[in-house]
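To: structure desk
From: M.T.
Subject: fold request, one chain
Message: Could you run this one when you get a chance? Sequence is below, nothing fancy, just the single chain.
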Amino acid sequence: MTISYNSSLQKATFFLTGFQGLEDLHGWISIPFCFIYLTVIVGNLTILHVIRTDVTLHEPMYYFLAMLALTDLGLCLSTLPTVLGIFWFDAREIGIPACFTQLFFIHTLSLVESSVLLSMSIDRYVAICNPLRYSTVLTPTRIVKMGLSSMLRSALLILPLPFLLKRFQYCRSHVLAHAYCLHLEIMKLACSSIIVNHIYGLFVVACTVGLDSLFIFLSYALILRTVLSIASRQERLRALNTCVSHICAVLLFYIPMIGLSLVHRFGEHLPRIVHLLMSYVYLLVPPLMNPIVYSIKTKQIRIRIAKKFEFVKAFRGFR
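Reply: Done. Structure tokens follow.
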């Protein structure tokens, strides 16, 4: 199949793909996806509600956690319409403007998540390595600036991508391999040279995820050095325990990303379903697991959520 690219952008379309060859089972396949999306939405909204309504959680660590929950929620909602649209209604066709808009939000929010994880590592570094200055370094104003700078950096770096793709003519197959739009996949459908897109894509990854991961590693190297200098074993464990949730969030973000990159680069011989599953793991597992990890490993969050459920049960019993 080919696409003739008209001057009117709205007339050009791509076709999204679910689980090819399993179209008859899309109704059943949608059940676990619905459960995942529902869990992501409920879990992250619960985290946001608990932090907003409990004044004892109005601290830097929980503000950053709220940023992470908002980012995960946005990332989930950016793929939900097309993924469930394919499974429920076989709605495979997507206009290029809509496709580029989805692409912008998916990539922007992925970079924002990387930035938020870096901010959270800075929070843990200051709390452990310089606790006396914690409240003066991470003031509400500075936290807001960190959040806004993360969003601005990500949006400005991703903004050129739709325009770089817009200049192409797409004369090859216009069937995408996933149920959502990604830059790497769309640019491969172009007829002309994509070297500029390749170079700019690598530049964006190096400036964001590359630098963020480096600074996260350095912050934890400094944290570990400080913790090892503490005489009391109990205090060392207590200090490290405050980092467990964040370390899990970092691993949940970077491991699927590295796995997806390896599959795309070296896994051409692997079945197509492996590529599909890895892409869904990359986009859905962090938003799904982050609220669960923080609810289990962060005592304050766990206690507040339990109190909310107790209140709901008591209210129902009263009625």
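Reply (cont.): The longest helix spans residues 96-129. Let me know if you need anything else for the meeting.
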